[in-house]
User: Which sequence fits this backbone?
């Protein structure tokens, strides 16, 4: 899978750089570029918080300016929390990752810019990009931690790329596949027959007129459970055991 | 917008609790529940890292066990990094948030469980849930920071909910509407307790070592059925009738 470079522009805290590296590794992205990190480089605090993503930290490449860091790229996204007046496309996370995948698939070098804590990217740095990536956040609290922003963006990249690899454009296309292979109707019917007989024998229905409706409700609940063959056997055992007292 | 409760089960580092609170506020979620935080509560380190999301920390509610924390909920997701052999639906982030939105729209109380750093949720805690939420991550590095997991899940919740509010969501993404208002976990737990006692009394388990796994499977099937309060009452009547023979 082709992946974008992640460019942290003037990052301040080493801990945040490490946390970004960790999020990158979680979602299969390993190319980290650092533009003028405030506390110099290497930074032991970055290594500490990177957890097992040390290779991402070790392989990070330093640049003096954002312009140099994107020089070899054909498609660049600039992440901003606040919307700004920019005359370029503003994409949400899903739209941006869709565009990014298209560019990567064409063989283009791609990168995502993340600005410094507190201030974000300068307008000149945003202007280096082809599009703005604006992560939808609550108006009540718009300040995303930088590593959270990286995790949110790359999780969408990874999940949507995985869907593509699985041959599905979008998980919403498909009914949920919960991985459970249900028992067949014959097995279910055997369970129903046993339960109905057992309930008849203990005079469960009391008011005969109510049986039809009640029994339909009982079966509906068991049907919704989508029991497996194994579970049908277990439940038949439960009914037998309860009925016969071991 | 209705939002889920976020439940952190036995969280270790106060810094992580604070970072989770911050991510929650970024995505409009403010109801934090804490189950037995390792370093006690309140924790000044949580407040430090919560940044401006202090109200989320201040309003956090403490519980002794995960079971108590979900007692008032009708729909619960359990977040796990590693896939496990569970007989319940396993949903990716997008599928899980789609299901969650459907439940919230019906007026159900919903919650998302996140396990402790390193170890994750215990099997017994996963068994409290209606479905497993498995965030797609790279096989090379599956260990997500807990606040990153919260940010990834809630950003998808927020973004997809915003799409719905804007009326632009894909028509394929329909909130789940099966017309069923599920019983809450307290009612379900009452049913489980009665069934377990009844099965103990008839020596159903035979091989004691097998009880834990078998019992988890039995509960999983009933959980998948999404019983209503009325159905819980019916099933309690069924168990009593079978057990006592009218």
Assistant:
């Amino acid at each position: 899978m082709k992946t974008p470079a992640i460019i942290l522009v003037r990052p301040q805290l080493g801990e945040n750089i490490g946390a970004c590296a960790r999020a990158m590794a979680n979602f299969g992205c390993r190319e980290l570029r650092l533009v003028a990190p405030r506390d110099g480089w290497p930074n032991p605090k970055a290594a500490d918080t990177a957890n097992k993503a040390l290779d991402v930290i070790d392989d990070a490449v330093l640049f003096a300016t954002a312009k140099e860091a994107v020089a070899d790229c054909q498609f660049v996204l600039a992440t901003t929390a606040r919307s700004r007046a920019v005359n370029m496309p503003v994409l949400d996370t899903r739209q941006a990752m869709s565009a990014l995948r298209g560019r990567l698939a064409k063989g283009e070098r791609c990168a995502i810019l993340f600005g410094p804590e507190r201030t974000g990217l300068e307008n000149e740095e945003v202007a280096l990009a082809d599009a703005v990536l604006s992560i939808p956040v609550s108006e009540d609290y718009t300040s995303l931690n930088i590593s959270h922003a990286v995790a949110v963006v790359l999780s969408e990249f990874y999940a949507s790329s995985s869907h593509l690899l699985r041959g599905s454009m979008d998980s919403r296309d498909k009914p949920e596949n919960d991985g459970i292979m249900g028992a067949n109707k014959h097995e279910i019917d055997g369970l129903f027959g046993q339960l109905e007989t057992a309930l008849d024998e203990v005079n469960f229905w009391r008011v005969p007129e109510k049986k039809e409706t009640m029994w339909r409700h009982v079966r509906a609940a068991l049907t919704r459970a989508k029991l497996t063959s194994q579970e049908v056997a277990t439940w038949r055992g439960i009914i037998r055991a309860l009925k016969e007292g071991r």
Observations:
- Chain B touches chain A through 73 residues (CB under 8 Å).
- The radius of gyration of chain B is 19 Å.
